[in-house]
Structure formats: structure tokens, C-alpha cells
Structure prediction request, 116 residues.
Amino acid sequence: MDYSGELMQRLLYNQMSQSDLAKMLNVSKSAVSQWVKGTSEPSTKNWEIIVEKLPIADKELKNISVKKASEILGKSEQFVRIGLQRGFLDFGKAVKNGSKYNYHISPYKLMEYVGA
Prediction:
């Protein structure tokens, strides 16, 4: 299983830092960093705690909504939409479908953008 991607999404969704998670699990910050990078994996016990304490809706596992991204960034939803449409926010894409836009925001790239 790819713990790395899902762990990053759970951290973002629950607005929790890697340091916070390390404290919660009583593990080192470097251990959490390695899990996020994918160079090691949490124990089964730690993963069960993460899943329980950092819930996430299944639909959020592959895409973050504009609303959630705006909350994480502390900006308006309009700022995020325009930034994606004009290409100056590089953590997602705005795809025009007729007169409307569809947005895809990568949890991985958003995490990198905010420096988490």
C-alpha cells in the first residue's frame, strides 16, 4: 500500500502538521517525514491510529476541493479559482468545459506549495 500519498492527504484534510502527528503517535519527526516521503512505512498499529484519528472522506483521497484548498491557504475560493485558471497556482488545474471550469487540486502539490 502507498501510505505516503494517503498520509499527506490525511494531514492536509485535517490541517495537521507532521510534527503534530509525531507528537500524537509518540514517534520522531523524522519517522513521520520518512513516511510522507515514502522511504519507510508506519507500523500497522500506528497506521490504524492515523486512520482513526485523521478521518477523511473517500472522495477527498484523490482531489482536494477549491473550498478546502482556500481554507488551507487562508485565501478566498475566488483567489484559488482564478489562480488555477490563469496558471499562477501550480498545485492544480482548471479545465474549461463549455462555459464552466472543472478543478483538480493535487493534495501532494498543495502540500508542497504550503511547505508542509
About this structure: The first strand starts at residue 92 and ends at 97.
